[in-house]
């Protein structure tokens, strides 16, 4: 009987973010052999975006093609519907309405394609290769341009009846609070704990305080979460308060999520976590303070063990083996 040689099989994993799209070519062992990125917001239509992605990947595919077999494409995207292969009304993307991503990808690349929510893809990647290895119950929270989440319970990714379960970033944590720039909802977690929310918090604190701050010397257009972090590390009081307040709101939200699914761990992922203890310490403090005693001091709060782009790429690529098998 002939055994199947998997060593030359490759998958393409794609993580579509609000600003950039990261891609990776992944082998069957979960090793990313090539990776890169293209702008997401630089393409006015989904067709132009897929064309740019194809033009970027084609040279790599041709170079590897003689010795390798590409089995398919896995995509993680905001508001990605696993069942239909569509992106639907994603607030952080400028392509509006329902986008038939898997159909368009298959037509352009000539490969089978599967899609899921970007945070779900990151959760799968973390479960297979990162901090959630061996866990059957955990929640992954992605803190980037927006706030996403992937929920795993009893070893299963929670998708819901329509594929959209787990939108914890859009849950209301401050009723009547800050207006979301895209959804029109008020007080959602994303408006406070995303990179965008951190900038809004800094601007509010600067407006409502007369305290000296290095942040006052940065123009509104140039103020971003990276600069706020740098000022916080340097000891700037308002910048440090931005992270304390962000951690408070995140911790309160995580307490709610813990009492919902009783996870073994909550794993934080994304660019915002580069703030380290500036974010982690207030988050842990307010998470524990808002839990019932039966949940306190049980849930691990950890940062992702994977590089920022890798979890979503690996999780997306795992969809390909699911297609094939």
Automatic annotation (TrEMBL):
Pfam families: ROK (PF00480). It comes from the Bacteria. Signal peptide: none annotated. InterPro entries: ATPase_NBD, ROK, ROK_cs. Belongs to the ROK (NagC/XylR) family. This is ROK family protein. It comes from Flaviaesturariibacter flavus.
């Amino acid at each position: 009987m002939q055994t199947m040689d998997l060593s030359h099989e490759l998958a393409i994993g794609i993580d579509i973010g609000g600003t950039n799209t990261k891609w990776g070519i992944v082998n069957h062992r979960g090793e990313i052999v090539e990776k890169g990125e293209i702008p997401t917001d630089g393409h006015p239509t989904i067709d132009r975006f897929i064309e740019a992605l194809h033009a970027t990947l084609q040279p790599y595919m041709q170079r590897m093609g003689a010795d390798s077999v590409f089995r398919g494409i896995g995509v993680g995207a905001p508001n990605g519907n696993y069942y239909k292969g569509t992106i639907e009304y994603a607030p952080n993307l400028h392509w509006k309405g329902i986008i038939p991503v898997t159909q368009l990808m298959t037509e352009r690349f000539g490969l089978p394609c599967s899609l899921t929510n970007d945070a779900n893809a990151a959760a799968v990647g973390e479960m297979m290769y990162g901090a959630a290895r061996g866990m059957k119950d955990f929640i992954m929270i992605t803190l980037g341009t927006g706030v996403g989440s992937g929920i795993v319970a009893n070893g299963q990714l929670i998708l819901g009846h329509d594929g959209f379960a787990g939108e914890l970033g859009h849950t209301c944590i401050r009723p009547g609070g800050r207006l979301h720039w895209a959804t029109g909802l008020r007080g959602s977690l994303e408006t406070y704990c995303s990179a965008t929310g951190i900038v809004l918090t800094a601007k509010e604190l600067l407006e409502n305080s007369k305290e000296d701050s290095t942040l006052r010397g940065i123009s509104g257009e140039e103020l971003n979460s990276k600069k706020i972090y740098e000022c916080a590390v340097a000891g700037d009081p308002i910048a440090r308060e931005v992270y304390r307040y962000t951690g408070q709101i995140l911790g309160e939200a995580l307490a709610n999520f813990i009492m919902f699914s009783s996870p073994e761990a909550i794993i934080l992922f994304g660019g915002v976590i580069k703030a380290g203890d500036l974010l982690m310490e207030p988050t842990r403090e307010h998470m524990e303070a808002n839990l019932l005693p039966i949940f306190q001091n049980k849930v691990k709060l950890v940062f992702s063990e994977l590089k920022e782009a890798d979890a979503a790429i690996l999780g997306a690529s795992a969809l390909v083996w699911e297609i094939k098998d």
